[in-house]
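Write out the bound-state structure for zinc ion.
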Amino acid sequence: MSERLSLSRAALVDTVGLRIQELHASGKLPGDQPLLRIDNRERAREAPFQFDAAKGQLHRTGCRAIPPGSNSALYGVWEVRAEDPVQGCSRCNPIEAPPAVEPEGGPRAEAKSQADPKPQAEAQAEAKSAGSRPQDDHAVDLLYGFLSIVTQFGGVLRERGQEYRRSRAGAAVGARFEKIYAEVNEGERRVLDVLTSSLDTLAVALRDIESGLHGEQPDGAGVSATRSRPHEAP
Amino acid sequence: MAPPGGYSSTAEWEPGPQAQSRLNALFKRYRSGVGDCLEPIVRQYDPVMLEARQGEYRKMLELSAKMNVVGHACTEIGGFDYDERRHMIGSLFGACCFLADSFIDDFGEAATADYIERLGALLTEGWFDPRTDRERLFFVIASRLFAQRDVLHPIVRQSVLQLYLAQKEDVNLRATRKAGDGRLTRGQLNTLKRCARNRSGHAILVLSAFLLPELPLSYLARLFWAGALVMYIDDHGDCWSDLKDNRLTFMNQVSRPERTLGRLFHTHIRQLASGLPDGDGRDLLIAFLTRYYLTRLEKHRQQRVKGAAAWAIYE
Ligand SMILES: [Zn+2]
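---
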């Protein structure tokens, strides 16, 4: 990809991100739906293992040998890899003995684990097959998926989308998108609809940016709509 | 596996001339390179920084160059090359840290509390609603950084969250200490030390998590210690300016700071030397920390004589 195209894409992504934030700030996105939840503290606390970064020691979750001073340095761990030599706590013995299972946070995995405890290797394989990470709020993942499509394909803009959808790659993305759309609930769909309709507004801003990058508007006036407020202290 | 106490001979870990000259070359390279990544973004979203706040902009570039050198070492320790994309990640991360620190330190207590609350909302809901040019610049830089890696990867998101919580605790400690009688209990001193450890320990893990596809647990603790050491060194260097700002840190409250820092430095470095895999990455990290330690000792001594000069740039 040329440097110019790469810059252009970065500028598009910036604008999409800022525009979505502006829509939220102006109250045009109905509901209290989160956009993206990075905070996974609850899931991390429920992981089968806890790694104490301050002491370099792995524990089973709930081990009483974890020093209080390490509580702010713990990392939830779902999978311990054989090729990653790590010191295990001698009290809870997290490496040698199998854990009480709970590789995933999904209800199916939970129900199964209560009835049929699995050895560590099997539990970890299951975790790995699910992407080696805890299941998160489904809706948030869907929204994140939607955003990744928007950011990866600035051409979800209507006029380009038509052409893109007819291509083979586009058909695959389209099917994915429609599946996501079909699965979201009513509240989430309203958010998606507002985001999608806002793409019209975005189309104008993005065209301005692109033409600016191609020398038609060397002053970069195309993004002025997203940063029209004067400078002020935060 | 915690770092044992006591001094050690430097011979077993001291970086040789090769690591030193590599460190010099990388600093030179990244000092001249970070602007290529950051200048267009700053020009677009907060042009006043380039025009009226040149000193601040230079400080941001210096921090980004530093993050690139540390990132370079961490990447090599993980067994990967520090390519152009990683150079961009290091630059964005440095700028992100710089702006976040400025929100916390430079605009008064109300702005600090507001930022902490809104950053919390960004991490739990994804909403930030940038209001100023500086905030838009921060948001865009953070977004570009987050676009470089799967931000839902457990280590990425946990390290980001832990860093946020460490910043929050640091801010809370600043507010609550004012009611004290000026003397700290051992417990309070330990809290300050733990806070310093976490602030930079988790920061280096965020950087490494953005640079490496996976962060092995066996490296995670070592890098955490390296990060913690950076903060002890940093706080010693900023001792007088922090005191001037009524900001208490472990390093400006401990009774014999230079001796304490020396002990921390030697024990942490020895652990890194024996715990990280042999190679250029480990040697570069140790060379960096050694240079950082020596220059900050000098900064501390100079500022004690001349008084704290805000925004002074030290290598
Ligand atoms: Zn344990």
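---
Chain B touches chain A through 61 residues (CB under 8 Å).
Confidence is low (pLDDT under 50) at residues 1-9 of chain B.
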